[in-house]
Amino acid sequence: MIRRIPHCAHWGAFTALVEDDRIVGIEPFEHDPAPSPIIHAVRDWLDPERRIARPMAREGWLERRERSDRSGRGRERMVELGWDEAITLVADEINRVRDQFGNRSIYAGSYGWTSAGRFHHAQTQIKRLLNQVGGYTGHCDTYSYGAGAVIARHVMGSPADYLGLGATMDVVAEQSDIVLAFGALSPRTAQQEAGGVARHMLETHLRRLVERGTRVVLVSPRRDDVPEWVGADWWPIIPGADAALVLGLAGEVVAAGRQDADFLRRCCSGAEPVLAYLRGESDGIVKDAAWAAGITGLDAGRIHELAKALPGRRSFITMCWALQRAVHGEQPWWAAITLASVLGQIGLPGGGVGFGVSSSAGTGITVSLTRGPSFSQGVRPNDDFIPVARVSDMLLNPGAPFSYEGVVHSYPDVRLVYWAGGNPFHHHQDLNRLARAWQKPETIIVQEPLWTATAQRADIVLPATTSLERNDLAGGTRSDYLLAMQQVVSPRGLARSDYDIMRHIAGELGVEAPFTEGRDEMQWLEHLYTGLANDARERLDVELPSFDAFWSRGYTEVPVRKDYIHLADFRADPEAHRLPTESGRIVLHSETLAALQYADCPPHASWVEPPEWLQGARAREYPFHLLSPQPKNRLHSQIDYGHFSQQDKVGGKEPLVLNPEDAKRIGVGDGEIARVFNDRGQCLAGVRISDEVRCGVALLPTGAWFAPAQQHAESGVADEPPLELNGNANVLTLDRGSSAFSGGCSAHTCLVAIERYTQA
What we know:
It is a single chain. The chain is of the alpha/beta class. The chain folds into four domains: 3-46, no CATH class; 56-141 and 376-464 and 495-518, 3-Layer(aba) Sandwich (Rossmann fold), CATH 3.40.50.740; 146-368 and 568-596, Dimethylsulfoxide Reductase, domain 2 (3-Layer(aba) Sandwich); 617-756, Barwin-like endoglucanases (Beta Barrel), CATH 2.40.40. It has 24 helices and 30 strands. Strands 24, 25, 26, 27, 28, 29 and 30 form a seven-stranded mixed beta sheet that branches. It has a six-stranded mixed beta sheet with strand order 5-4-19-18-17-6. A five-stranded parallel beta sheet has the order 10-9-8-12-13, with helices on one face. Strand 1 and strand 2 form a beta hairpin. Helix 7 (242-255) crosses helix 11 (300-309) and helix 10 (289-296) packs across helix 11. The longest helix is centred in the last third of the chain and has 20 residues, at 521-540. The chain is globular. Residues 711-717 have low confidence and may be disordered.
């Protein structure tokens, strides 16, 4: 007999068809107009060859504990443990480190997308546990938008713009005359959402733009960053040069005297120094179309024409999250805010600026009016942190200073890393450097369903269930539905849910009662749902169904914001609706940054040459700019081993997309294997030739499982870095903070060389 069970993954809600504890089919959510095909890959989470079946520990660590040879991580035999023994080892390590070195020496990394569920959210679970016993060192911001988040908060005063909670595509689709898209504005990149997604709506809004005849200009090194049927003008920009284009457009508007002087005076601070910069009065360089063309590789006439077309028309500028994952990544986002301010478009329907639209399914699409069903981390006893992308810096340089938002901090001396539900050997940059840093902590604990590269390099491994093997809730601030994630199959092997693992550890540490508050899994889900329903009733006068009715049906709609004009109140009366910035207005020139005098983050939006780009000196040795976008058929590294991901490989390797002229020049053919390399690393990839990418640019999607050739030592002793066999782009990317202000990741500042691979 086949059972129909509602569930949700990052790629969308679905019904699992289950027979004899096996998934025999997947049906998309009935109300989703454009479901992601990736939902059909979820059954591969249950692949027994990839699953961690039981608790295990590294043999050398069991023998010598914190005095073990840490180079044995990923090499030594793993020894099977019982759950009680494993939990005791974990609790003893937590106690040892906090007693001897203090809680800041425990790093609760746990950055990742392990589940769409809001209760079994691995990051929250581990941080709630550690908060009961004195705290931990955590991270702030995300790899997705670290540099952008910092500058957007500083300039605009809130996270709304970069979290997709400001301007939304429903209004843009109805009101905008011109959409200027930097990077992806595509259903391809909008397949997933952190808290799950019920309806994929971007395509609906894009089709409305087409229907209305809205002009769309795509600024990107790849043509398919907007669907072909949108009919966008493609501007194949040199990667890393976006800030120059935006500033050149703004300079043209100012030179023509068409800036909105009233908006700049009323709603912005520091406009005059910025206008002086655009006119060339501060540095002798006029920021105009010709100047921008020389940097961006674009046609000066097209830039001049667009600058003439923008004033007086309702224009919307969207910049994807990927754009700021670069050295000086703050600058293109700040430049976009500057251009929108010069045009006076902020606060108008269909005008202004947005960040991350289509970078996830709900960003710039849906804003829920209810609070999310999130499990609380509790009260944090300490405030030790690092910017999320500075993991290797922290491990390699204990005690060294780092700056964040203008304040100097110091890296902790981390002795214990506890990573739950994430895979830094996928998402971090310069993985060979991370491999060296990974040998520094005394103990590494990984809690994970699958034998990822990170789990393979642990001292203690705790097998967690996937979302299919437990009950949960999906939904959040960018969702129009709350979704029941009912258990689909029984747990595989000896795997336990994240909550049950943490509850067991909490008991060993003597804090089970405050950790659980006396509730089991289903009691917590009902508690979280009831809190959300009560809030909807009291604050919004909306009555949601009872928990039992919701759970039985599998979903309920929640109220969402509609026809909202972002910052309209501020525009109308900036004094009455002051922004939480240094001036109460949009900051075009920052007094804070002027005082800090950071060389890599000037006090206003600027063009600052990156250390690696196609017009720089390093391009003579490494002539390709490597971009590592999200793949079209998985999320990050999730289920990379599965059929759905593998069907897009080339010769079993991650596809490397090259322009035909580039492929001919270096002598590689479609379907052949190439070696991609720089002084940080090298990997193999399968060549795919396409005229959808700009000459000089190579696309290698992120997420291939890290597999360095075994003959090389990860310690860095070898003459050259190990050859990564699957096509993991992050053996090549730059591990450097975007600036001293943010410390965000710089993955897209990356030059490489490429050659045909001829070895057997």
